[in-house]
Amino acid sequence: MKTLNQKFIAALLVLLGIVLLSINLGVISLEIKEFFVAFYPLFIVLLGLKLLIDKLTKGSEVLFLSLFLLALGSLLCLDRLNIIVFQFSMIWKLWPLLIVYIGIQMFLKKRPFHVEIDWTYNADDEDGISFSNDDDVIGSHKERNRDSKKVFTVGEMKMNKQNWSVEPLKLRNVVGDYYFDFTKAYIPDKETPIHIKGMVADIKMLIPEDLPVKIDAVVKAGQINLFGEETRGKNCRMVYESSNYEMATRKVYIVLDVKVGDVRIDKV
After folding, report:
1. Dihedral of the CA atoms 59, 171, 263, 261 (nearest 10)?
2. How far apart are CA 251 and CA 74, in angstroms?
3. Is 232 helix (H, G, I), strand (E, B) or coil?
4. What is the β-pairing status of strands 149-153 and 114-118?
5. Rounded distance between C-alpha atoms, residue 200 and residue 19, angstroms
6. Cross-strand bridge partners of residue 261
7. pLDDT tens, 40-86?
8. How does pLDDT run across 158-175, given as a tens digit for each residue?
């Protein structure tokens, strides 16, 4: 059964489609067309307000859509009032609303976001990650078998439990803090790839002296501290490879790619 919201939105879309089709076919007169062009932003604002009220009163999952429609409609209304210049074709400029949405969600949610990661590693696969609202998982990861999926909180991930298992990891995120203590880890007798890519991230790692590693760290804006050597500013990159890496069977290959952030890797 369709909810009242679904019916309202469906009716609005049908009405909008009919009006646009009539304009394109010349059925609607120029005066009506000008009236529609002048006032349709107000309907977008009203729809955004309705969705926002539904979010606040009924807990519906439409926060981003309501914020987007409110911003879009408000900017178009300001354009019609000749306060600013904003056309519908400039809608792509509203992408920072995604960052605003993530920040608001972090404030409002009692439990953190989670990112779901497929631990079946495939070098040709760039994806395999999806967002989840699993309320049963907080803090550290769920222990399952190697070919299953594991869930981490977006915002913070700590791998520092005693004998935590090092598995192939490929992670993409928007914002996150990461801490890996390989001195406490069980590391299998093979090369294990660890790939982390993010927009904003603070990454810290502890590497045991006897563990052969190969590291490629890139930070577009921020700093990298790799075994005491440091670089900071824009387009930072540091690489490192243990002298016995190629001959070793038990080793870790680490690739870090961060737009903005801080990377620190130490040996202990």
Report:
1. -40
2. 55
3. strand
4. antiparallel
5. 43
6. 201, 222
7. 787 788 877 877 777 666 655 566 777 788 888 888 888 878 888 88
8. 888 999 999 998 887 767
Six-digit token pair at 105? Answer: 């969600």
Q: Give the 3-state secondary structure of residue 18.
A: helix
Instruction: State the Cα–Cα distance between residues 145 and 142, nearest whole angstrom.
Output: 10
Going by C-alpha positions, the residue among 180, 187, 227, 172 that lies closest to residue 203 is: 180
Query: Which residues make Cβ contacts (< 8 Å) with residue 49, sequence separation at least 6?
Result: 66, 70
Q: Whole-prediction pTM value?
A: 0.48
CA distance 55 to 104: 13
Widest distance between CA atoms in the chain: 79
How far is residue 108's CA from residue 101's CA, in Å, rounded to a whole number? Answer: 10
Query: Could you tell me if 104 and 123 are in contact, meaning their C-beta atoms sit under 8 angstroms apart?
Result: no
Q: Which residue shows structure tokens 């939105």?
A: 9
Cβ–Cβ < 8 Å for 121, 142: no
Q: Please provide residue 240's backbone torsions phi and psi, each rounded to the nearest 5 degrees.
A: -155, 145
The CA-atom distances, in angstroms, between 77 and each of 18, 84, 97, 149 are 22, 9, 18, 46
Which tokens in the block code for residue 214?
A: 């190969």
Strands 169-181 and 213-226, bridge-based pairing: unpaired
Residue 171, SS3 per DSSP: strand
Query: Helices 30-58 and 4-25 meet at what angle, rounded to 10?
Result: 160
- Output the six-digit token pair for 225: 């501290």
Nearest to 140 by CA among 121, 119, 160: 160
* pLDDT for res 128: 38
